[in-house]
Fold Anti-sigma-K factor RskA.
Amino acid sequence: MDYSRPELADKLAAEYALGTLRGPARRRFENLLPAHPGLRRATTDWERRLETLTASTPAVAPPPRVWQGIQNRLFGAHDALQASGSQIGQMASDAARSVVRWWERLALWQGAAGMATAAAITLGVMLAQPVPVQPPIVVVMGAQSGAAGNGIQPASFVASVSGDGRSLVLKPLSEGQTVALNKALELWAVPAKGAPRSLGVVSQQNATTVLRTALLKDTAAFALTVEPPGGSPSGQPTGPIVSVGKLQL
């Protein structure tokens, strides 16, 4: 998927900002953000557009009948006209105790509301603070002139690896280049010791996104080889190396 397309980046950023991008798709989008400036810009633009929806609503005082209804439900309605003198005294005493209890409950609710407000403010501050993003690692892969011949052209590429090592974007430095006709171009992670690991077949002319859990683990360089269509049949490089870039951390 070409995440450099503005239409695709804007669509994914909108779904991410609105919260409709969920599950693995949302996690994959978050992993791609460090390596894609276009995705980050689109996401920032959408978040700014939606900021007005998070503005607080002015407080509105409820009408008196609302409070009267709450008191009636909590303490019951009394008909003072039908009560005797002693009953009136008892009712006054009960009412006083009810008012005290009511204020105690109100204080408890206010305390709980205050704690909830403080928690909401703390969460808001945490969400407002930008999450530290590790800068991408850029590897320039120089052309290997020794690969020229038999219809194979040297070519240069640039690999941008996210700081967390979970995504890589490979782009050719020359537009419209073709390394080899009727052949595949395969990307390899080359360790300091041992056999290289295949990262899959990539495009010769367009940007390619590679997703792995540990692209940088035991990787000293990246290399591109020419292979049969579909990639190396043996799982190891078989064709000439057309481009190499050393990883420097």
Q: What stands out?
A: Residues 167 and 211 are 5 Å apart (CA to CA). Residues 79-86 have pLDDT under 50 and may be disordered.
